[in-house]
Structures are given as structure tokens and as C-alpha cells.
Amino acid sequence: MKYIVMECRESYAVLLDEEGRFVKAASLHYEVGQTVENPVLMRDIPPSDKADPLRKRLRPLAGTAAALAACLVLVFGLRFYQSHMTVYSSILLSINPAVRMDLNREGEVIELAGANEDGVLLLERYDGEGKSRLTVTEELIDRAIDMGFLSEGGRISFSIDTPDEVLFQEYGLELREGVTAYLAERFTVTIEITAGTGESAAEPSAEDPAETEAQPQETFSPASSAAPETTAPAATQPPAETQAPTAPPQTQAPTAPPATQAPTVPSPPPATQAPTAPATAPAGDSGYGDSGYEPPDSDSSYEEQPEGDSAYAPEDSGDSAYEDDDD
Amino acid sequence: MKNEHELSEQVYKAKEDMDAADRLIRSYLPFIRSETARFLGRPPEEGRDDELSIAMIAFHEAIRGYSRSRGAFLSYAAMLIKSRLIDYRRREKRHQGQLSLDSSPTEEEPSLGDTLAGDPDHSEEIVLRDATRAEIEELSAQMKLFGVSLTDVADNCPRQQRTLAACCRAMQFAAGNPSLLDDFLRTRRLPIAALCEGSGVERKTLERHRKYLVALLLICTNGYELIRGHLKQVLKGGTAK
């Protein structure tokens, strides 16, 4: 093979072979333009397979970094899971059909379950997952109206079960205002809000919340207007029979609302409830008006849904709560 | 240690930049010479011993092939120089038994080179060489306009036979289309799309050997008869064997 010398540099020459290759070779006293044979060509050294020392040094670190990243993902994933996927609090909505809403830490509905037969019926073909608690409540009320469970003068009760007092107040106020505003045009209904305990699948142990909830009830019932009148018959009632129905609550009812409730809800509920309660009492004695102050009656109204009752009211909490209240 | 680090920095720079490589080789010429001397067992004679050139190209190879994982640069280069010199010596052994033109059988007789009647032949060769050199100078001047140097082309030249054949097919197609070459000279842009379509070579192959193709196409244009004569085997259409 003959090569033409194309370029001569100090350390090498560029040659052109007959096949059109340009190659570098040792410059053995060549001159440009010369034709040469048997040059000493420069060889290509394949790149070394070994990793760069820098990369080699970083390799153990890479493992650590990966582990760290995995930990971060795990921690944040767990946080997310806890706040979004696990049941933190629950609300028992009972119109007559009773429905339990399980909420996550963010207050979104993650599960709905019927707490009695009608409740199961109410939830048929309804998907409330991921919606806000208020939306679900409103939609369920709509359905209840459509299905004939709720009518003028009916009663809606919310039993809120949460380990967090602040949440209890927040949810209570929100539900009360929201539902009142939602139904304002159509119906007057009684809304009652109580602190429920332990019935739900919520993980907070039955003991702990019981203690903490004693306070929410104290603070909340005066603050939330209509409660005293109507919460009296709530599921927590039975054990406290003798004390609850006595005078104090009744006297409290008129005094408390004007004082504390005026700023929060200058609303129709208390005003309209008071008149409607007695008015509707004789007509529809389906567990509203009359139940308020006659424990046996309230009991019986709840005996219609015995599971709800029993599950609903760990005695201690209700008891202590009301004792405190009364004294 | 710090020196060594600096040196390997320089080597990495020289991989990209031929001028830097030249500078590096110039400054390490004493090292190259001493390595050669160690091999020969005597100091190499400038202009006489090919070994020195071999050592230089070995140093050049060392620059290109070096990576930090291969240890200190100088010991790597020394190792490479030594092995290249050994290769060279083995190769030269094949020519043993042949006499050097410069040597004379006995002291009194004239050297063999002088007994050859080669003068007229020699001058013809010189004429040819000068003509070729003129062509090459013209070619590299024109390549400069395209921003390509001969060293670039050598670095960019296809290594695989198959790729080389593909590039040559593209060149043959261009040689058969003078208008394409005119456009190429005028716009100074490689007509890759036309080459790709006309020769059936993959576009990627052409793009990867852009600089090499520039040189090939320039050789196809007017004025490089001697170089084309050298490449006639390829241009005739017989693909590289």
C-alpha cells in the first residue's frame, strides 16, 4: 500500500492511503507530497474500561445517596399516606338513615358507610370519595329528600368524632352553617351537633378521645347555639338520664344563645327552631321534638337503631361531659 | 504529586487540541529522547534514527489513549514508547539481511547508494513530489475555508471498513454530479441530504464523518489530479477492497 504524505508535524505525519483513509503515522523524515510505503501508523488505543477514579470514589456515596433518597420518599410517602389515606376523624350523619363519613387528616371524605339499613339504602350508587365533607353532606341530604327521608321540620344530627378539639369546632360550625344555608330556601330543619366517640373505625383509642372530648363538648355546646335544646337527646344521653333533662340545660338554652351565638351565626336555626320544635312535635313525633326532654322517649327513638346507640356512646365520656356541663 | 496532576490536566486538554498536543510533545522531547536512549542503549541521533520518530508517535498515542485510571501519565507514556519501539524493532528484523544503501561492504569501496544510476529518476521523483505538494497546499488552503484541517480529517476518518466504503460511495456519487460539487463549493455546505438520497448511505454515517467528507469532496473538484490519481482505485467505482 502506498501513502501520500499530506502533512508533516513535529510528532507525526498525516498520510493518505490508496483507499481514501487519512491516517496519522510516525514522521520518519517525510516531506509533504512524498509517496511512502510501510509507514509506522499510529494506533488507536481503545478507551480504558475501568471507571474514572473520580467516579470510583463516588460510587459508595452513590449508594448512600440512593438510600437517602429512598428514605425521603418513604417518609414523605408515609406522611402523605397518613394525612390522605388513613381515617383520622369521622362524622355520623343521621337524618333517619345514618351514614358514617370517615375523613382523613385533611378533612376529605375517604369512606362512606351506612350505619343502619336506611343509611345503606341512601348510599346505594353514590360515590363520595375525595369530595369535601360538606359536599357529601349536601348531596346526601338531597338524596334523603328525594327518597323521602327528610321533609319540612325534620332533624339532622351530626355526631363528630375527632381526636382534635379544634377540628371538632371547625367541622361543627362548618356543617351547621353550610347545611343551614343550603336548606334555608327549602326547609326548616333542626340541626344538632354532638361529639361522638369511638363508633367509627377511626384509630384513636376509645379511651383517649373520651377524655379530650369532654372539653369540646363543654365549650362547644354553649357556643353553638341550638345545641342545648336539641343535643339533649343525643346518643350520649341515656346514662345521664337523670341529670340531663333537669332544669339547667333549659335555662341555659335561652341564656347561652344570645350571648355566644349572636356573633357566630345570626341565623334562622335557633330562632326558627324554637317555634318549630314544639309545633312539629305532636305532628311528627319521629324522634325530634318530644325526644328532647324525655329520656325514655329519646331512648326509644334510638332503640329503632340499636347498633347506632350502643356503638355511639361510651358512657364515661357522655356522662362526665354532661355532669360538668350541669354543675 | 501536584505536578502530576497538572500534567494530566494538560494531557486531557491536548486530547482535544492538536496545538496543545504539539506543545506538550515539544516540552517533553527530552523525556522522549531519554526513553529512546534507554531502549537503544545509546543516545539517538537526530535525523538518523527512526526510533526517535517512533517514540514521538508513541507519545502522541499515549496522549490520546491516556485516562486517569491508567495511572501517572509519564509512566504510561514510557511504557507505551518502549512497547512501540519493541514492535518497530521486530518489524525491522524482517528486513535484516538487506543492506543499507549507506553502508559499504568494505571501507574502500563506494557505498551501494553511490553505485546506483538513479540521478535522473531521482529528479523526476522530486518534480512529482513538488507537484503533489503544491496540490496538497492548495487543498489544505481550501479546506481552511471550510474550517477543516488535515489533522481533523485524520481524526475524523472512518475506522471501520464498512463505514469507509459507505463514505467512498457518497464520494463516487458526488463525483458523478458536477452540479452538486459546484453547489458545495459555492455554499460551503455539505449537501448531506442529496448525498444521502443519491448514494443510499445513512444520513447518520454521513453526519458523523462530516469533516472527512469535506476533504473527499474537495478532492473530487478540479485541480487535484495527482491526489485523485492516488485514489483512482476508489474513484473508479471498485469499492475499497
Topology, pairings included?
The complex is a heterodimer of chains A (327) and B (241).
Chain A: E1 2-8, E2 13-17, E3 22-25, E4 35-37, H1 53-84, E5 89-94, E6 98-103, E7 109-114, H2 117-122, H3 133-146, E8 155-161, H4 165-183, E9 190-195, H5 207-223, H6 227-231, H7 247-264, H8 268-283, H9 295-303, H10 306-312, H11 315-326
Parallel strand pairs in A: 8-9
Antiparallel strand pairs in A: 1-2, 1-4, 2-3, 5-6, 5-8, 6-7
Helix pairs in contact in A: 3-4, 4-5, 5-11
Chain B: H1 2-16, H2 18-27, H3 29-40, H4 50-65, H5 73-93, H6 112-115, H7 119-145, H8 150-156, H9 161-175, H10 178-187, H11 192-199, H12 203-208, H13 210-220, H14 225-230, H15 232-235
Describe the fold and architecture.
The complex is a heterodimer of chains A (327) and B (241). Chain A is built from 11 helices and 9 strands. Chain A has 327 residues and is an alpha+beta fold. Chain A folds into 2 domains: 36 residues, no CATH class; 244 residues, no CATH class. Chain A has a 5-stranded mixed beta sheet with strand order 7-6-5-8-9. In chain A, a hairpin with a 4-residue loop joins strand 1 and strand 2. Chain A is rod-shaped. The N and C termini of chain A lie far apart (116 Å). Chain B is mainly alpha-helical. Chain B has 2 domains: 92 residues, Orthogonal Bundle (Rna Polymerase Sigma Factor, Chain: A), CATH 1.10.1740; 103 residues, no CATH class. Chain B is built from 15 helices and no strands. Chain B starts with a helix and ends in a 6-residue tail after the last helix. The interface between A and B is large, with 41 and 55 residues.
